[in-house]
């Protein structure tokens, strides 16, 4: 079971507060206008940036570092994108070369098949006759006629 908390304050409503002599006699401090001792910056952007950095808590060095970092990042992204486009272009050229070479191989294979198919006709035109039976020679038991080992 949660216990109820009570909040006590020494503050009293304004109509119940005792009036002290000091609070009735003191008044609010007077406000004064202070003019800017520095002249207005001219329309030059660099001068305005320098003036702005002098009025801020961050020194000019931090701003320069941030701008240099942003420029380096943009330059790096540009270089990376350029390299990617160049690699893509080279890959497209290589794929075109591969497809051209594949087509050349297919053309050469078709020529070879055509020549192999026309070989029996050319042989018969030259007077050659196809072999009728097969002959095999077994050299496993061969002995030299000189009698020496080779």
TrEMBL record:
Biased composition (Polar residues): 17-28, 131-150
Protein name: Cell division protein FtsL
Region spans: Disordered: 1-42, 123-150
Source lineage: Bacteria, Bacillati, Actinomycetota, Actinomycetes, Bifidobacteriales
Transmembrane regions: 60-80
Highest taxon in the source lineage: Bacteria
Annotated coiled-coil segments of the chain: 91-118
Keywords: Coiled coil, Membrane, Transmembrane, Transmembrane helix
